[in-house]
Amino acid sequence: MPLIQRLRERKLFQWALAYLAGAWVIYESASTVGGHFGFSDLIFQGLFVLLASGLLAVLVVAWYHGERGRQRLSGPEVLMLAGVLVLAGLGLSQLGSASPPTGSSVEADGGADRSILVLRFQDLSPDPDDAFFAMGLQEALTSKLDHVSSLAVLSRTTADWYADQSDPPPLSQFARDFQIDYFVEGSVRCAGDSIRITVKLIDGPTDRHLWHRDYDGAYSVEAYSRLQSEIVQQIASDLRLPISPEDLVWLAEVPTRSLEAFEAFERGWVAFWDEWYRGQSLPEYPSTRWFEQAVELDPDFARAHAWLARSLLLPHLGPDPSRLERARLAAERSIVLGPDLWDGHLALANYHGVRGEQEKALDKAHAALERMSEETLRLELQYKIAVQTGDPKQARETLREWARVDPTSPWPIRHSQVYFLYDHRYEEALEELDREVVVLGSRTGENLRRRMMIHLLRGKPEAALALHDDVLVTGTTSYALLPGTWGTASLRVLPQDHRERAWKVWLEADLGIGAGLQLNPCDYADDPVSGCLRRAIHERDVGLRAKARILWDSLRVAAETVWAEPDIPGEYYALSLIYMELGQRDDALRWARAARERYAPGPCSIDDYRVQRHNSCTMLARILARFGQYDEAL
Fold first, then answer.
1. How many helices (H) does the chain have, and how many strands (E)?
2. pTM strictly above 0.70
3. DSSP class of residue 316?
4. CB within 8 A of 353, min separation 6: which ones?
């Protein structure tokens, strides 16, 4: 009998189609349920092996029992079914012994830490104003994953670097280049009172999805916090990594019961970092308004108080005498409400730092460090502590570790540039500048400006001048181009036409003309000193001395009113500078010596790297030299 006819008689095709349809329903149902409950990819792989083996078994049974009438179990049939069982067992055993990337319970490699990166979540919300939620979820998961033992969590800057690439490499290549073992990615969709979140765990070297989870439901702070905790625990369970009982309690905590306060805080947090990276002084910041709204809606929201304090301590255009006091009260309130949170302690450290109270600032910084879990935040704070305490060796070691843990962040690289520059190691500073270009993919105005300064310090003004047009093209902000440690010296060696062009770039960048703000710091009613002081320095440096002199005279009158009783280091230094520029030796030295007595008592030393002592001693030496008292200046 022909084979085709026998197959038809035994209805082999009908059996196979019926089984495949049933298997498809089973697999899709399992995928749907598994997506909601976070089933591991290993479960789906095992189910696929069993269903495939079942198809072979069905075909064997159909072949031997597909005809009409009564059939008995034969020896060949038994052998075939046994073979199918053996194949299924071998397939499942291969899954059980697979390498870590393909399993759901991954054994640690000799106890070594494994690395994970939370990628930027895709925002699918119909309202663009809800984009803050996706950024907030990425940051929250990054922070909470740091509470899992033996898991090295890369910072958000690495994820942002990858997302901002015009032609990003495949995830597997990215993972190999930066030694990333796992990725977390997903999407967020907010619509009214409902929310849908999809989260996936991906093996880095192979780009294989280990599991995914879908969450649909009503939008509430409690549900959102619970979801974050469940995601972190699922990842830890799959990687067989422990979470301490204390951390489990911390993961379950809800920051606030008010959804409106939570949303205001998330919006403020996103706005704060945008303001931080822009580096532009404003009369007030959007982040401040959002954080104030959050604490009004929930006065017991500890983190909102802390970040309100940090927002109030951003560089403001305008003295606002109440601002520092408001920052102090907000930071102290945050510590009362959440003594185990690092945010409030760091905010209070920032407050004391602005006031020049170094010992108090260091004490609160150490308190914040003890409460931090995220490695990159810890390293950044350790570096700043080392700088403030004058420990260059510790600062350099911390920068190396920071660059290792967060290889795509430009910040440890930029701090290394400053370290090498002040140590007169110019070639190494240039190497760090080249590294920054590789990380960012282009030369920024800041990068070019620092190259200019290094060329000047090496006695190569022509090389610095050759870069100057490139700096202007970048449209870099004022702090990156003109006054301060880097800019003032570079302007003075430039031809007059270059200085005037640089001055115009500053006017557009620093006064917000390009952003439509049209602010003139000298006309700003609440700040007759700070902004105008910068403008006077710029006009002096570009050779507009007559204009600068008019400003210095008006600054003296304003300073005697606004800063009659200086309260922070910057006010002492500004008064000293104003009187020095006006040639009033006694007044300039009076304020410089007052700053020296307050912030740097005792003898000055060239080997003392503590910031306030360094600045106070340097300012006094500069003024002494300006008036010809060289021996005392030395």
1. 30, 6
2. no
3. B
4. 361, 388
